[in-house]
Specification:
binds iron/sulfur cluster; 17 helices; 8 strands; eight-stranded parallel beta barrel
Length: 481
């Protein structure tokens, strides 16, 4: 079956993917009408159908994607880890395969919004996006020819936040991703930074740059960091407000900015543009045509596309020094070092007399439920005050600089989601736990160790002792440990 998106990427032909936001606020018929019109544009190789955009359920992306394809537009279906465990995700992938849909955009997903009058939202995040990519790659090996896109945001202005985005992208690519798509952003230096990061590591995975047609309503929202991961700087907000006073409400100005961004992306060697903020085929055609006119001037246009945080982190900015606010405290550095030292002094990670003894003791305790429960209670009493342990039964503290993954509201094990705002969590009012992981790893010169793949926990072990599980080899943890 032909796949115009994969074909364009293979042929290294600059291409366009247009995001179709399938929220419940829009009638499905309107979306499909838009899909039909977009299908008539030869440079548009796919329509990217959202699921759970902004943390709310929309139309079924499989149904919308199938209907869009019937109208000639190849779908790229967003598959998030929100509220679907690994079995449910596997089933969705089998359904996609049965429908002949190949392009999947594997995402962590926004935390679900609370429903009015229903109390705080609850969510299941059984897998994270890296684990989801591994699952898809496994199904691909079983004969389902999926093409996997993943997200990355260079538009992070706190060092730990930004660098972990890049490290996590490397993990996603190692897990089997075929394509990366950036988050929204209006900062050419950051677009260039991502390209440079990949080139320096000889990673040639194609990347689509996000080109969002930014109107005043979206700009006002994004200026507050909503939807999670989208940020509009005060300077850009001011510009958009000014543009909105024009007779056309700023339409021409925002299409022009989108076209300029596309020209910059082409110049920087991006594989294509991921257009959001409009479903209008007329707008998209205008952006494509205008970007071609502007292409020779891309370097000058890049100089003007500077809506970042002037005091924020840029990877190759020699003037930058990490903010003291994000430097790990002496205590934060000491705890991992002490635990590491203890781990080294206790030879239990390979076949030694001590490991054999602890294995025998664990097996003995495991056969006596009262003893196993007492060990679990003791472990929790030690680890809860120190790490916020929640007795998941599959301890990976040693792979996360002694920060417990269960303290992340999305319980991720391979790095932060894209929802942070200046290093703060999208869900709860606290610093993102991954900032601590990064800062501690950097202080100990162990950043490369963060690239290890951490598998999803065996959830049937929840509430049991991870020590016993470890010595009985029934927990899940990185193989390389
Ligand atoms: S990873 Fe699991 S066992 Fe380890 S501290 Fe966190 S909740 Fe406890």
């Amino acid at each position: 079956m032909s796949n115009p998106l994969a074909d364009a990427l293979t042929a290294r032909r600059f291409c366009y993917v247009v995001e179709l936001v399938a929220t419940g606020l829009r009638r499905e018929a309107q979306l499909l009408e838009a899909a039909s019109r977009l299908a008539s544009l030869p440079d548009v190789v796919a329509g990217s159908i959202t699921s759970y955009a902004g943390g709310a359920l929309g139309h079924d992306p499989l149904r919308v994607g199938t209907a869009a394809r019937a109208r000639g537009l190849t779908p790229n279906i967003h598959l998030t880890c929100v509220n679907g465990d690994r079995q449910a995700l596997r089933k969705t992938l089998e359904d996609l395969h049965a429908l002949g849909i190949q392009n999947v955009f594997a995402l962590t997903g926004d935390f679900p919004k609370a429903q009015a009058g229903a109390g705080p939202a609850e969510a299941v995040f059984d897998l994270d996006s890296v684990q989801l990519v591994r699952l898809i790659a496994e199904m691909r090996r079983a004969g389902m020819p999926f093409s996997v896109a993943v997200a990355v945001s260079p538009f992070k202005y706190v060092e730990a936040d930004c660098m972990y985005q890049y490290v996590k992208l490397e993990k996603k690519i190692a897990a089997g991703a075929d394509l990366a798509i950036t988050q929204v952003g209006w900062d050419a230096e950051k677009f260039a930074e991502l390209r440079r990061y990949l080139a320096e590591r000889r990673i040639d995975t194609p990347v689509l740059g996000n080109v969002y047609v930014l109107g005043p309503r979206a700009a006002e929202r994004m200026a507050t960091g909503q939807p999670p991961g989208c940020w509009v700087s005060p300077a850009l907000l001011e510009t958009v407000r000014r543009e909105a006073t024009a007779k056309d409400g700023g339409l021409r100005a925002r299409l022009e900015r989108a076209a300029r961004t596309v020209a910059v992306l082409r110049g920087l060697g991006y594989a294509g543009a991921y257009i959001g903020g409009t479903h209008d085929a007329g707008h998209v055609a205008w952006i494509i045509r205008r970007s071609e006119e502007l292409a020779p001037r891309w370097e000058a246009l890049a100089e003007e596309l500077h809506f970042g945080d002037p005091t924020g982190f840029y990877l190759d900015d020699r003037r930058h020094t990490p903010s003291p606010a994000h430097a790990p405290s002496a205590r934060a550095r000491l705890v991992p070092r002490l635990l590491d030292l203890t781990g080294r002094l206790l030879p239990v990670t390979h076949d030694t007399w001590l490991r054999r003894l602890l294995k025998q003791l664990s097996a003995w305790a495991d056969k006596r439920p009262a003893v196993a429960a007492a060990v679990e209670r003791f472990e929790l009493a030690v680890k809860k005050p120190m790490f916020g342990c929640q007795a998941c039964g599959n301890c990976v503290l040693g792979d996360m600089e002694y920060v417990c993954p269960q303290t992340c509201p999305k319980q991720m094990r391979n790095g932060p989601c894209g929802g942070t705002l200046f290093g703060r969590c999208e869900v709860v009012d606290q610093p993102c736990i991954w900032v601590s992981v990064w800062d501690r790893a950097k202080a100990a010169d162990r950043v490369d160790a963060l690239k290890v793949y951490v598998p999803p926990p065996n959830r049937s072990l929840s509430g049991t002792s991870s020590w016993i599980n470890y010595f009985l080899d029934r927990d899940t943890r990185p193989l390389e440990r």
